[in-house]
Amino acid sequence: MTVNVLQPGLSTTVQDLGRPGFYHVGIPLSGGMDRYALIAANLLVGNDDGDAVLETTFLGPELQFLEDALVAVTGADLPPLVDGVEQPVWEAFSIKAGQVLSFDYLRSGARSYIAIAGGIDVPLALGSRSTYALGGLGGYQGRALKAGDMLSVGPAKRPAGPGRGIGPELHPPLPTVTELRMLPGLYWHRMTDEAAANFFEDVWKLAPEADRIGGRFRGGRSPKLVDRPQPFGAGSNPSNITDACYPYGSIQIPGCLEPIVLHRDAVSVGGYFMVGTVISADMDLIGQLPPNAKTRFVKVDMEQALEARRAYRRRLDRLRASLS
Amino acid sequence: MAIIVVRAPIPGIFYDKPAPDQPPFKTEGDSVAPGDSLALVEVMKTFNPVKSSKNGRFVRYLVENEDELMAGQPIAEIDVD
User: Fold this and answer.
1) CA-CA 20 to 30 A from A31: which of A124, A136, A182, B20?
2) Which helix (DSSP H) or strand (DSSP E) does residue A321 occupy?
3) Residue A58 is nearest to which of B42, B43, B68, comparing CB atoms?
C-alpha cells in the first residue's frame, strides 16, 4: 500500500516509540513526543503499540491514499478531513483508494499521530523507524516529509474496522495551565532559596522556537545562583558545569536565564547545570504544548514520580481494555 | 468584490514585514495575486510565509506585528476580485 504526500505540513515525521540504548554514544531516543497518543492511534487501527506512524506539528499534511486504508488520528485536536468531510479524532475511519486525507486548523494541542493499519514501512535504523532529523537518521530518508514522497504501508496485522473509538475519559487533558511535575536534581543546590521558590511559583510560557529537541520557557524570573569558584573544566558563567550527561526530560538554565526542557531528539551531553528532570509520566504533555502555552513546574519526590509512572501505565491498560 | 479573511495556518509569532528594517508586505490598496506573501509566522526557529491564494486588493492586517497567533486566527483582509 502506498500513500502519496501531496503537502507535507509544517514538520511531519515518521515516528515509533524510539530507539533507546544509544544515548551514551550521542544518539537520542527520538520517537513520538506524545507516546500515549501514538500508542492509542496504533491500537485503533489494529497495529502493535510501537508501529510507525506520522507525527504532525501544528499543521497537518495532505495525503492521497492509493489503496483503501483504515486510519486513526489522535493527540492534538487537529480535525481530519477525507475529501473535505470532517472525521472524528480518537476514532478509526476508512479511506478509499484515491481519496485525500487533509486537516482543518489546529484547535488545541500541538502534535497529532496519524496511524494507518499495517504501519508506515520505512527501514529500521538502530532498531527503530523513528526520524532523527538533526542526525539524518531513520524515518523517511532521515528527514521530515516533503511533497512528492511516497510512503509504503505494511500489511494489516489483525482485523480492525472503522467506528472504533476511545472515549473522552481516556483522552489526555489539554489544560489552560499545564503542570509539569519535576524531580529536583544534582545541581538543585546551585540555586538560592529565593530562586528555587520563584521557579515553582512563576507561570512559564513555552517559547515559539520549541521543537523535538527541547523547549525553552519564558516569563518566569531568572534564577540567582549561589556563588562558588567555577570547577575545573567548567565555563565561566555560573550556569556552566564540567560537562555531564543530559537526561531526557532534564531542565537546564543556560546563562541563568530561561529553563529549557530536553525532549526526544535532545543532545546527550553538555555544560549547563540542570535543576532537575520532568518526570516521564508528564513528558507527553510537553509534546502537546502550542507556542506560548502556560505551564508551571511542580516539585515531586521519587516516590510520587514512580506512582505517576504507574498511574500512566494504568491509563494505558484502561485504554487497551476499552478497545478489546 | 467581497472581503475575505486570511487565517494563520500555524500558531506562532506574527510579522507583517519580511525583515525588521523593511516595509510591510502589503498596505491598503495594494494589489494581491495568488502566491504573494502577506505575512510571516515564526515557530520552531523557522519563518513561514503566509501566501495569498486569491487575486484582489489588500484591505488591512487584523493583528499587530509580533503578536502571538493561534492556528486559524484571522490575520488579514483581502477584497477579492
Assistant:
1) A182
2) helix A302-323
3) B43
Question: Which residues of A touch chain B, with CB atoms under 8 Å apart?
Answer: 10-11, 57-59, 104-107, 208-211, 290-292
Question: Hey, which bits of B23-73 come out as E strands?
Answer: 31-32, 37-43, 46-51, 56-61, 68-69
Name the closest residue on chain A to residue B68, using Cα atoms. Answer: A292
pLDDT tens figures, A203-261? 999 999 999 999 999 999 999 999 999 999 999 999 999 999 999 999 999 999 999 99
* Residue A37: half-sphere exposure toward Cβ, Cα within 13 Å: 34
In angstroms, the CA A318 to CA A283 distance is: 20
In the predicted model, is pLDDT for residue B1 greater than 90?
no
B45 contacts in chain A (CB < 8 Å): 209, 211
Spans of chain A below 50 pLDDT: none
Structural domain containing residue A250: 177-315
Decide if B43 and A105 are in contact by the 8 Å CB cutoff: no
Which of A105, A288, A289 best probes binding to B when mutated, by most B CB atoms within 10 angstroms?
Answer: A105
Are B72 and A107 a contacting pair at CB < 8 A?
yes
**Which of A270, A255, A180, A177 lies closest to A223, judged by CA?**
A255
CATH for the B2-80 domain, from 2.30.40.10, 2.50.20.10, 3.50.50.60, 2.40.50.100:
2.40.50.100
State the complex-level ipTM. 0.89
